[in-house]
Fold:
Amino acid sequence: DADVTQTPRNRITKTGKRIMLECSQTKGHDRMYWYRQDPGLGLQLIYYSFDVKDINKGEISDGYSVSRQAQAKFSLSLESAIPNQTALYFCATEDSAALKQFFGPGTRLTVL
Amino acid sequence: GDSVTQMEGPVTLSEEAFLTINCTYTATGYPSLFWYVQYPGEGLQLLLKATKADDKGSNKGFEATYRKETTSFHLEKGSVQVSDSAVYFCALSDRGGSQGNLIFGKGTKLSVKP
Structure:
């Protein structure tokens, strides 16, 4: 089984809808991240969490919110989706001692 | 703020050719440097890393040396294979900064032809 899973893998929605992307991990890591990938722009950090009680905004947090329900779960919500939020979204965990991040397979979101 | 600049792609090579993907960085502290690889349809995977100046990271035939004097971390491989076709991301982590996260370059797509 994959160590970092994301659901759904693909989602098409309409402008104005609320969307939740979920991430689960079995690696036991405290640190978790949500990134957005757009063609030619690399990955941009949306939110990150160093433990269940610690949530931090990344460089592009506007229009997004997160919830860290447990060490293993970190959800990303789009309160009112807009077309320029169409992108590939990645969740990651981090082994902070090894300075290594482990990425999920990604969720492809299309907002019409 | 901290940033990473890597050569734009796409890069197309024949099998067994020599590969160099350039990466330079700007950071206020003493960052750790990384190369991540993204195969088609997958998430990113750590390829190699270096945590201090003059360190050489290596994995699967790829190498990169942390050069503080030139603020560079170029990725090299002596003989590429078709299976190396992927997008390569250079990244830095400056834990002394305000965010404990990775800062990525824009990625370089490599295509290796048989």
